[in-house]
Every structure is written in C-alpha cells, then in structure tokens.
C-alpha cells in the first residue's frame, strides 16, 4: 500500500522514465516527484483519500516587491513557509496558471490547490451592448485553448485537487464546453467555477465570493443542494481588516456541507519605490503617474509586499488551527480536527493566570490523539486544579499551547501550531470596583481661570475652569499629562470604513459631521469640596465644526451630543472620571467610537497593560489575542499599513500604565461596573492618520495621543466595498455611561497592585 499524499502528509515518490534503444542501451532518462492520492466527491463533500478535508485557504497572486510579476524561487518558498506556519493548507492560483516551480513546491510542502485558467472578463459589464465572450462562438477556441493548456501542463501534480474555469467571466456555452472537456479528460479531480452565480452546472463546488455567513449556512442546509460549499474568496484583507472571520469558522466548523474557503488575498501588491530624496516606500496605483489606476485596491493582503505579516494573520492562524481547545462545564476538551495526522509530534503545555498574575505552568502530558478525535480533562484531575482551587482572582484564564517537537521542512522545533485560551470559572463574585479614599488632604488653589489641586509634592493637577480641560498633571514634579480629558467619537477611517460610496460609514459620518466635532463647554462647575476630595462637573455640546468666527453663535439645537463628565479628585491622587454621553438626535449613523482622549508627555512611552494582545486587535478580530499582562513601547505599537488609518488598538483592556524610564507615569483602568476598554496610544494623531495617504508621510507629534474607548466599532471585512460590520460590532448612537479610574504612578507602585486594590473582597 503506497503512502498517500495529502497536505498534512505530502508523501512523494520519485518517478523515473527510461527510454531504451531496442538493442538495450539507455537513450534518455527523466524523473520527477509524484504523489499518489484520490480526489472524489460525496453528497455535500469534497473528499481527499476518502476524507472531507477542510479548506483553510488563501488566494495568491504572483507578486514580488521589487520585480513585480517576475517569479523568484526564494519568494515562492517564503510564501509556502509562511502559509504552513500559519495553518494555511490550500491556495487558489488567482487568476491564472502560475510558474511551474510553484506546483512542484506545493507538492513538496503540502498544499491543496485550485489551478485556475487565465480567463476573466470582469469589466465586460461596461460593454453590455456587445455579446459576452462566453456566449460568442468566435471566443470558444481561445477559451478552450487556455483551459486545455492549463490541464495538459499541470495534470501530474498531486497538489491540484480542482480545476477552475477562470474568474468572474460570466457563464455560457463556452464555459459549458470547457467544463465538458475537463470532465472527459480528467475525472480524477473536481471542477470549480464561481462565474454565473457559483451554482451553475459547470462547477462541482458551490463556490461563492464574499457571501455572508448566514447565507452560506442557508445553502449548506438546503437539502436540494448536494454540492459542498467552499468560498472561493472571503474576508477581504484590505488594510486593517478581516473582522468577524471567526464567525465564518464557527459556522464552517459546525455545519455539514461547509468546507472552508480562500481568503482574499495573500500579499499586498505594492512595489518598492525610491523617491527623489532617497527614501523608499510601498507604491500603489497612481504613484507612478499612471492613469487610470485603482489606487490602493491592489493592497488586499495578509502580508506586506516584503512578506512581513499583518496583525490579522494571527487571527487567521487561530481560526485555521487544527488543534482546538474548548471548555464546557468544567471539562476541557482538546480536539484533533486533522484528517491524517495524529498528535504524536506535538508537545502540549499549559499556563494559568489569575487577574494577570501567573499562577502556574507546565507540560501537559496527553495520550496520542488520533485524527478527528478528542481528549477530555476534568478540572479536578487537571494539573492546574490546585492553582485554581486556591486562587481568589476575579478572572482566571488557562492557555493551552501545542508546539512541534521536531523540525519540519517549514518550521523549526518549538514552532507553535496551536494556542487557545479559555476562562476558568472564578470562585469570586465580580463586584463593582471601588477605591479606598484614604485620609490624604487635598490642597486647592484658584489661579484665575485655573484651579490647581495637589497633595504635597506627590501630585498636582491643573483644571481650566473655562474649558473644563486638564491643563497639566504632574507626578512628583514630573509632567505626565499635557492636556485632556476630552470626549471622542471619531477614528481615522479604514479602507473598509470608506467602502460603499455614499452609503459607506465614512460618508455617513462626514454627512452627520462626526468627523468635525468640536466640544463646546456649556459649563464647568465645582460640585463639592471637602478636605479629602473635590468634585468637578463639565458639560459639553458636541457640535460639527463650522466657520470659526461663528462658533460663538451656535445654538444648542445644532449639537449632536451632550456630554457630562464628572471628575472626583481625591487627596490620594486618584481621579474617578464618570462619563455620560447622550445623542441629541435619533438619525445618527453608527459611531466609530465612544470614549475619551488625552495627551501624555512623549516620555511616557513605556506601556504595560492587562488585556488582549500582544498584537493589534479589535472587537470583531480578537479571538487569537490572549488576555495577559503585556509590556510595550508606544512607537512599537504603530502598525504601518501602506495607507494609514485606524490601527494599533488593543481590546478588552482592564488596566494600563504609561511610564517614563524612571517609572513616573499614570495608571488608567475600568472602574465601578464598567466593562474593559479599547486602548490606543500613538505619536500619530487621529487627524494625521486620516490625512496621510502613505505611511512614510505620517508626522509624529511631541506627545502621545491616548484613547480609552467604552465602545469601538468593529473593522468588518466580509468585503471592502459595502458597509458590512456585523450588527453586534456596531456602536449605535444611543446614550452611554461609563467610568474610568486614573491614578499617579511611581517606580514604587504597579498597575497590578493598584488594580487589585479596587476589587472588593
């Protein structure tokens, strides 16, 4: 019995063909690597070696950052190494047959492939007065030639499991003829074609592009549809994107008839261009004086052109991982969803954290888990039980990781194959957070339009009574905050925000004036004064900016929002910020964010936070981001998308500290019953990220702009040309209330200690 080829186990044999003269001497000898495998179909299933493999795929254009469409083998190998390292097991050759060496490498590394004919007439809808090529007999020979050439050239490669008739070229008699020829020539593979609605007789797979989750589930559950559904394109990776991809995979993993899909696409197709001043940047449509152009619509990849991964690739690796971990009623289940590979070559480990503090860790000894099998661990018999049982933390997280024990063609030993985090039940009830007010005396001084609050030399805050703004905040004489704290509803738009013309989120935000809000101080008043605390109330009207000369004439009726911020400043230096945001109109679009903004001294660049990370994550793209305590530098958090926009945020942040190299700084956390925050900190302002069209055009400020959001809209990514953030990740324009705690920080204090102090025992 031969060892069969699959993406999991790409077994190859050397085939040798010898030509001999009739008298015996060898005339010629040729050899190649071949794989032995079977591709077949069953009701609602594509089968490889009799198994309904799941397609965890990407679309790949041939692209090199310097030489464009010229193929270099090292670049192909780099692609395959990255694909395998990130649990990608399939590639669609979009939208043409590719370099012959690519097929050999896919056979060798193990990747399922759709090989696609070089046929596309996407723009033909501009010529509807003409007969479509697929309906035109005069085009039949040309179309057949491309299909036949592809099949005849590539037919001996084990990696190819489907032939594709092309891309976005409609459907008609010429496609029917090509499909008939392939089925007669090569019945050993399935046929794929999306054109004509993805369900024509010319395809063996229902293969829609950018279809919504609920629609693919509906098709899979249609008893009259006997073909499997595999998305030929989905999760459009344009800029900061790939939101809610986990929802696709929750559906795929749980719905019979759904068998995966191919993300659009693999790599940003930018080119390295040197400018007159010697600087280099990633160039895109229009940067070469080219007209017409499609601007940055060639930048849809999970990687930058030089193959540096976008943060979204972490999310892809997570949803594509074959080793799954889940927790239900105290039982941890580890599932091996591979079809051919056991867990024999993997080392499992665990680590448990309580409120960000490491409770314990170790190697997780498991029996071998066969393909499509699982192993369950009861809490009481687990190696982390004693740590959990003695833990009084408010939140307890368990992380299970699987690593390669031995090196492979595409990864060194120790490479992480799978990692997942689950939240263990806590024996401690979550109560609203409170502070111990203490008996520190607060000193108040009135300095004209400024009120100065302080306690000895430990801290000092200056409020502008006219504007309600914090003019400065010093800790032990060191300036920490330059200015704040302001309401904020705006974010620098992403590519997905801009998609959809007049119906895009960006267009609707601008039409409503959300992009140009100014916050006019209606009142700023001292509400209460004692020896131990001072309470200040600031009321703002959020009004779209008009000509500055007429700002004083604006009436309340023109305000989109009324914002009430209550500050309670204690002698201890703690500041409780209670925010109440209320829209004044009912016809506003979903909001980009609801939160506060303040500006720190640029020296406060050492960030430590307890939340999801360590990489960029958002409400609809955070499944791969584990809750832990992370330390980073502000400048390192920026994500240099080729076209700037909203970036670099961290989700579900419980607390965060900003400190200088001496340890002086500021602490911020959720407070009372408020949920975790969305954090963003950058030397680039929101305005600057909106202004620049290339990353290298961004100009740094001499301050750090910090956003702490109560709500932040998702990224979306089902496509990039319609407003398609899922409802649960939208931020409706309704009233919101939330609280934040701020506190001075020194080298002798810690974010963890301050956070623990606000928990009720």
UniProtKB/TrEMBL annotation:
GO function term, MF aspect, one: beta-galactosidase activity
UniProt protein name: beta-galactosidase
EC number assigned by the record: 3.2.1.23
Pfam families tied to this protein: Bgal_small_N, Glyco_hydro_2, Glyco_hydro_2_C, LacZ_4
GO biological process: lactose catabolic process
InterPro entries xref list: B-gal_small/dom_5, Bact_Beta-galactosidase, Beta-gal/glucu_dom_sf, Gal_mutarotase_sf_dom, GH, GH-type_carb-bd, Glyco_hydro_2, Glyco_hydro_2_cat
Reaction equations catalysed: Hydrolysis of terminal non-reducing beta-D-galactose residues in beta-D-galactosides
GO cellular component: beta-galactosidase complex
Record's keyword terms, sorted: Glycosidase, Hydrolase
PANTHER family with a match to the protein in the record: BETA-GALACTOSIDASE
PROSITE patterns cross-referenced by the UniProt entry: GLYCOSYL_HYDROL_F2_1
Span of domain Beta galactosidase small chain/: 452-743
Keyword Hydrolase: yes
Enzyme class: hydrolase
């Amino acid at each position: 019995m031969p060892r069969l080829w699959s993406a999991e186990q790409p077994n190859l044999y050397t085939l040798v063909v010898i030509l001999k003269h009739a008298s015996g001497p060898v005339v010629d000898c040729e050899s190649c690597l071949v794989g032995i495998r079977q591709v077949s179909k069953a009701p609602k299933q594509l089968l490889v070696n009799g198994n309904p493999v799941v397609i965890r795929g990407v679309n790949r254009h041939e692209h090199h950052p310097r030489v464009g469409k010229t193929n270099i083998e090292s670049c192909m190998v780099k692609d395959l190494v990255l694909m395998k390292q990130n649990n990608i097991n399939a590639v669609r050759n979009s939208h043409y047959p590719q370099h012959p060496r690519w097929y050999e490498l896919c056979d060798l590394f193990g990747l399922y492939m759709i090989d696609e004919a070089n046929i596309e007439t996407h723009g033909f809808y501009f010529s509807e007065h003409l007969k479509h090529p697929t309906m035109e007999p005069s085009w039949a020979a040309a179309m057949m030639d491309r299909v036949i050439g592809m099949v005849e050239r590539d037919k001996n490669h084990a990696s190819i499991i489907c032939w594709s008739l092309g891309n976005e070229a409609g459907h008609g008699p010429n496609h029917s003829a090509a499909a008939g020829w392939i089925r007669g020539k090569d019945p050993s593979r399935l046929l794929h074609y999306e054109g004509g609605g993805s369900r024509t007789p010319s395809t063996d797979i229902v293969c829609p592009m950018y279809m919504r989750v609920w629609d693919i589930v509906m098709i899979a559950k249609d008893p009259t549809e006997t073909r499997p559904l595999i998305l030929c394109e989905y999760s459009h990776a344009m800029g900061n994107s790939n939101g809610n991809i986990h929802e696709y995979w929750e559906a795929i993993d749980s719905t019979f008839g759904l068998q995966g899909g191919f993300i659009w696409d693999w790599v940003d197709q930018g080119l390295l261009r040197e400018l007159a001043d010697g600087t280099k940047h990633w160039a895109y449509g229009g940067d070469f004086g080219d007209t017409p152009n499609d601007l940055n619509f060639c930048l849809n990849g999970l990687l930058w052109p030089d193959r540096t991964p976008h943060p979204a690739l972490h999310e892809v690796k997570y949803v594509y991982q074959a080793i799954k971990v889940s927790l239900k009623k105290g039982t941890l289940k580890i599932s091996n969803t591979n079809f051919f590979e056991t867990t024999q070559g993997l080392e499992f480990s665990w680590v448990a954290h309580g409120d960000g503090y490491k409770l314990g860790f170790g190697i997780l000894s498991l029996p071998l888990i066969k393909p499509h099998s699982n192993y369950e661990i009861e809490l009481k018999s687990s190696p982390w039980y004693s740590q959990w049982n003695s833990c009084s933390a408010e939140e307890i997280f368990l992380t299970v990781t699987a690593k390669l024990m031995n090196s492979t063609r595409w990864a060194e030993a120790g490479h992480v194959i799978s990692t997942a985090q689950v939240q263990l039940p806590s024996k401690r009830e979550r109560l609203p957070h409170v502070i111990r007010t203490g008996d520190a005396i607060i000193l108040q001084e009135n300095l004209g339009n400024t009120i100065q609050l302080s306690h000895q030399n430990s801290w000092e805050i200056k409020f502008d009574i006219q504007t309600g703004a914090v003019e400065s905040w010093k800790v032990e004489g060191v300036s920490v905050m330059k200015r704040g704290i302001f309401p904020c509803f705006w974010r620098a738009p992403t590519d997905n925000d801009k998609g959809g013309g007049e119906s895009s989120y960006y267009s609707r935000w601008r039409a409503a004036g959300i992009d140009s809000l100014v916050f006019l101080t209606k009142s700023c008043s001292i509400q209460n004064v004692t020896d131990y605390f001072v309470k200040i109330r600031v009321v703002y009207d959020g009004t779209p900016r008009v000509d500055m000369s007429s700002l004083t004439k604006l009436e309340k009726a023109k305000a989109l929002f009324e914002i009430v911020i209550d500050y309670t400043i204690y002698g201890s230096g703690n500041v409780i910020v209670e925010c109440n945001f209320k829209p004044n109109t009912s016809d506003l679009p979903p909001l980009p964010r609801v939160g506060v903004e303040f500006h720190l001294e640029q020296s406060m660049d050492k960030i430590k936070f307890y939340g999801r990370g360590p990489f960029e994550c958002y409400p609809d793209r955070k499944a791969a981001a584990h809750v832990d305590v992370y330390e980073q530098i502000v400048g390192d958090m920026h994500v240099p998308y080729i076209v700037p926009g909203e970036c670099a945020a961290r989700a579900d942040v419980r607390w965060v500290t900003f400190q200088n190299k001496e340890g002086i700084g500021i602490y911020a956390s959720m407070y009372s019953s408020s949920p975790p925050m969305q954090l963003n900190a950058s030397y680039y302002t929101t305005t600057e990220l909106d202004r620049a069209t290339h990353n290298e055009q961004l100009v740094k400020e001499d301050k750090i702009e910090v956003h702490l959001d109560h709500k932040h809209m998702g990224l979306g990514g089902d496509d990039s040309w319609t407003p398609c953030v899922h409802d649960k990740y939208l931020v409706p324009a309704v009233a919101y209330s939330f609280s934040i705690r701020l506190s001075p920080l020194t080298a002798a204090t810690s974010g963890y200690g301050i956070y623990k102090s606000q928990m009720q025992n």
